[in-house]
Design a protein that fits this description.
It contains 4 helices and 40 strands. The protein is mainly beta and about 400 residues long.
């Protein structure tokens, strides 16, 4: 007869094995669902629920190529999420994601940094989908037409992206973030560097250069730039030629050599509102035409046909130069004029800055952080040091 003690021990062992099996299955389920500290589908299949995970240089090069992996094909219409910082030092032959085709999927940078990017046109060539939470640092972008750090052209959505220590150069439609935007750009930063649109190459050479976008036929909202922007004509701290620009500010020097030069935008037939030009200098090296007002603190040229310019401001000590001569503001220093209304330093980065930006400039508190004695910073950039300053 089997002793009761033996039966009891066997029962205990069986119960323990059952418990271990149950715990293991629960852990697997939690990992699959992204709970319990596990990663969400570590392979990824490119779906919205389980995006392809981008962890290194090889993964980044694979995005949008259609290459087959264990999870599936990394096509242009798939979802991607970056899960680690990526250093591209020594990668001198990179190609823009998508090449001649639109990226129609989603790329979520996850707030991780891609550093030392040297490429022609941009990280993406053409964006029709969504690119968000991308952080680029140490960027050298060049090309002929439609050149930008994040994308050469975009008719999709670009949001919560930052670019720092940047040099972008080309001949036509050159932007710190995007060369040509016909979609929407929201809550983005371009800091510390230069955007240069040279006078070589095309019929419209040297045209359309801006801190965020060279040419904007869509919307740009809640952005700031600290980069210097140089071009021939249609040069601005946010855009060279704009559609809608709202709740933006610029602090870099703006230099043009023909016409339509402004602290926020060079040329506009669209809507400019709630923008603040804090540039130290806006200069047109060619003497301005006596009949065309082609340089302004906020807008280089405005049309009397369009009246969508409102609640714009500029620092009163900005140096505004045409040729070698200072430009007189005349009666245009108003919230609806090309020069914007004056805003004193105490308001924009002094004792009153904690309230002036939200109450007077009406920047939305849903997107911006305000404090006294400093310029506004954008929300959604945890871990990124934002310390914009004026010269």
């Amino acid at each position: 007869m089997i002793k009761k003690s033996i039966l009891r021990n066997v029962a205990i062992v069986i119960a323990c094995l059952a418990a271990v099996t149950m715990f293991s299955n629960c852990s697997k389920d939690k990992d699959k669902d992204g709970e319990g500290g596990g990663t969400t589908n570590t392979i990824g299949d490119g779906s919205e629920t389980y995006p392809f995970l981008v962890a290194n240089v090889a993964d980044l090069k694979r995005v949008g190529t259609g290459e087959e992996t264990q999870g599936g094909k990394w096509k242009l219409d798939k979802h991607y999420k970056q899960i680690a910082d990526i250093d591209l030092s020594g990668e001198d032959n990179l190609k823009s994601i998508g090449g001649v085709y639109d990226f129609t999927g989603t790329y979520d940078g996850g707030g991780y940094t891609i550093s030392n990017l040297t490429i022609v046109r941009g990280l993406f060539s053409y964006v029709q989908g969504t690119v968000k939470n991308v952080r680029l640092n140490g960027v050298n972008i060049s090309g002929n037409a439609s050149v930008g750090s994040v994308a050469g052209s975009s008719k999709g959505v670009i949001e919560h992206c930052s670019v720092s220590n940047v040099t972008v150069s080309g001949n036509f439609q050159i932007g710190g973030l995007v060369g040509l935007n016909t979609g929407s750009i929201n809550a983005c930063i371009v800091s510390d560097g230069t955007v240069i649109c040279s006078a070589e190459g095309e019929l419209f050479n040297g045209s359309y250069s801006g801190g965020v976008a060279g040419r904007n036929l869509g919307t740009i909202t809640n952005c700031y730039t600290t980069v210097d922007v140089t071009g021939t004509q249609m040069v601005g701290g946010i855009v060279g030629v704009d559609g809608t620009v709202q709740y933006c500010y610029s602090t870099g020097n703006i230099n043009g050599d023909d016409e339509y030069i402004g602290g926020i935008t060079g040329f506009t037939l669209g809507k400019i509102s709630n923008c603040v030009a804090l540039n130290s200098k806006v200069k047109n090296t060619s003497a301005p035409s006596s009949s065309i007002p082609d340089i302004g603190r906020v807008i280089g040229w405005v049309s009397s046909v369009y009246t969508s310019y409102n609640n714009n401001y500029a620092r009163p000590d900005m140096i505004l130069i045409g040729g070698e001569n200072p430009i007189s503001l005349g009666t245009e220093a108003t919230i609806t004029g090309m020069h914007g209304a004056n805003v004193e330093s105490a308001d924009y980065h002094g004792a009153n800055s904690g309230t002036w930006w939200s109450n007077t400039a009406e920047f939305p508190t849903s997107e911006w952080l305000f404090d006294n004695n400093r310029l506004p910073r954008l929300k959604g950039f945890e871990g990124l040091v934002q310390n914009p300053k004026v010269n």
